[in-house]
Amino acid sequence: MSVPLVLLALVALGVIGAILMIPVLRVYRGTRLVECPETKLPAAVKIDAVRAALTVFGDEPSRLRLADCSRWPEKAGCGQECLGEVERDGASCLVRNIVAEWYRGKFCAFCGKQVPEVKWNEHRPALLAPDGVTVSWKDVKPEGLPDVFSTHKPVCWDCHVVQGVVRERPDVVTVRPDRKHLYS
Length: 184
Known about the structure:
By secondary structure, this protein is of the alpha+beta class. The protein folds into two domains: 89 residues, no CATH class; 82 residues, no CATH class. Helices cover 36% and strands 12% of the residues. The chain has six helices and six strands; from the N terminus they run αββαβααββαβα. The strands form two sheets. A three-stranded antiparallel beta sheet has the order 1-2-3, with helices on one face.
């Protein structure tokens, strides 16, 4: 067998392998919010998606393992019983799905418009903290979601950006009073 044919065969095997693994990687990527069996409190976990995807090549059914947990490194040797929650319904404990569901049907605390459906690769909505400051989702720990949902209000992306400019550059912003009452 010539070298080009061997390379072609290896490339073909690689493509087939990727085609088999990509759906599994997509299912198991992302941070999930589960109840820690030990503390009964929320814990943010990430599944070892690569390991799960590699099991498509073996006879053994996919065995999930954690890649990360908000309780680690202190509890890194745990039995990972929380994986049962992911195996039962992985989509419902996926943080991006939990957050998107929380925003569904809610209205912005500033402009009063309905917050559009959350699309994580576009303009993300934010939160209004009790102290009146808007908070980006990158600044929220997933294990704190239950508390955040009970203490914060939804903010659309546009208002979050405006509030950021007002907070960071008040010298270049003129805040005008609401003029809706003039037109009613």
